[in-house]
Amino acid sequence: MAKAKAERTLVKSPPEVWQLIDDEARVGVWLEELGGVAQDVEAAERRPEEIIVWRAGDTIELGFSIAEKGWGTHVEIDVRGGEEEVAILETILDELSGTEKRPFSSG
Question: What is this structure's pTM?
Fold first, then answer.
């Protein structure tokens, strides 16, 4: 089974990040991008504001682990099955970070 992983510390609180990764519709879109089927999405494991693992059928799992770190939240994402694309995971991290709200950005 293919496996990929990405991680980043975001300038958001754990509750803010949790709200985004606990959204079944949003996660369904990400799972589709990774080769899953959005209508078969279910939370296979859930520890609020710590870990959530989403499953799309029997083919793909998308897991998130979050922990408070300094002024933000450290997020680890891993995918088992589907596309072995770290670039997709990096795009998910970009979406979670809300790049349009980054401090000190120009434009």
Answer: 0.84
